[in-house]
Amino acid sequence: MKPTYYNWGLSAERPFVIRFQSVVKKMNCDMDYDFHKSLHMNIVMQGDYGGDICGSLYHCQAGEAFITAPWEPHRSTFSEQGAVCYMIVISLDELAPALLYGRKTLATFLSFAPEKRFALLREKDLMKHCFQCGKEIGKNGEENILRNWKSILECFINIVDDLGELEESPGRTADYAKLLPALHRINSGKSVTTAEEAAKLCNLSVSYFRALFKSIFGKSFAAYELNYRLNCAAEDILNGRLSVKNAAFEWGFFDASHFSRLFKHSFGCSPGKYRKNCSKESQNCNIFASASK
User: Fold this and answer.
1) N or C, where is the chain less crowded by C-beta within 10 Å?
2) Contact, 224 vs 213, CB < 8 A?
3) Could you tell me if 28 and 49 lie in one domain?
4) Long-range contacts of 259-268 (CB under 8 A, 24+ apart)
5) Is the dihedral of CA 276, 281, 283, 288 positive or negative?
6) Are 113 and 157 in the same domain?
7) Which residues, 6+ apart, have CB-to-CB distance to 177 below 8 Å?
């Protein structure tokens, strides 16, 4: 079963969230894609950790890190040795302005395909900045918001400074920008958004919109949009905010039976069982086991 951490509650007062994670040895769990409006930085402090971003695989060793751009479908897949990681979820709305002129470099970097982004981090020896950030967080303590925000800012200042001027990926940055109205529409409410409606918001033909979306995100708009609503409904059920019936209604499903069938296909169990056994089954799935230092 896939743990759901969709709504991070980021704000100007709390522009980031840190999760300390211990990943078990020989972990290999194929879970459904997840995606967020926020930027993610996963820092491997010990062991190894691999995953999938938009269908592109990466594999980090201790001292390395990967950065997932906002809206990118991603999932964890494997660890040979087991791992200790920091996952840092960051509001790009708060991070980008703090970088001043470096915000353009960051925007270009995030617009690159995941494999190019990962290669740049490794080839330019930029992962050392992420690892240093992880060490400082360990020293500060996860709840020291001010010092940890300073460490995160310094990490990204060093990254954009070492990246220098980047040549934009031909077409990709512009293509990504074309899709933003659709992505913001998905994020703004609970009603169903069709490809036709999304294409209209982006001022694109439906056929071109569908092809462009799949080329950027590695999955159809319909699958992406459905995944969003299922993830959000799962969170509401898990946190007790909504009953299964009300979650189905609130998140735009035809009825509770229709919702339950789609939910089971995505999460591997019924919504009721998910709410009842989520913590136990998440541990049994060997994806992440939260740990304290």
Assistant:
1) C
2) yes
3) yes
4) 259/233, 262/226, 262/230, 263/230, 263/233, 263/234, 266/2, 266/32, 266/227, 266/230, 267/1, 267/2, 267/32, 267/230, 267/234, 268/1
5) negative
6) yes
7) none
At 186, list the tokens. 């998905």
Given 100, 134, 163, the domain boundary residue is 163
Same-domain check for residues 159 and 176: no
Give the tokens for residue 139. Answer: 């020293």
**Angle at alpha carbon of residue 251, lines to 247 and 253, rounded to 5°:** 90
Closest Cα partner for 80 from 41, 2, 28, 127?
A: 28
Same domain (yes/no): 155, 231: no
Question: How many domains does one find in the chain?
Answer: 2
Its sign, for the CA torsion 66, 37, 113, 107, is negative
User: Is residue 123 located within the same domain as residue 180?
Assistant: no
* Tokens read off for 213: 């979306």
Distance of alpha carbon 63 from alpha carbon 101, whole angstroms:
28
Residue by residue, pLDDT tens for the chain (293 residues) are 344 445 577 889 999 999 888 888 777 765 666 777 889 999 999 999 998 888 788 999 999 999 999 888 887 778 999 999 999 999 999 999 999 989 989 988 998 888 999 999 999 999 999 999 999 999 999 889 999 999 999 999 999 999 988 887 666 767 878 888 998 888 777 678 899 999 999 999 999 999 999 888 888 999 889 888 888 888 788 777 888 888 888 888 888 888 888 888 877 788 888 777 554 444 433 333 333 33
112 and 176 share one domain: no
The Cα-based distances of 64 to 48, 79, 130, 200 in angstroms read 9, 14, 7, 41
Q: What does the DSSP 8-state code read for residue 167?
A: P
Q: Rounded distance, CA 63 to CA 65, Å?
A: 7
Q: Which domain holds residue 199?
A: 172-276
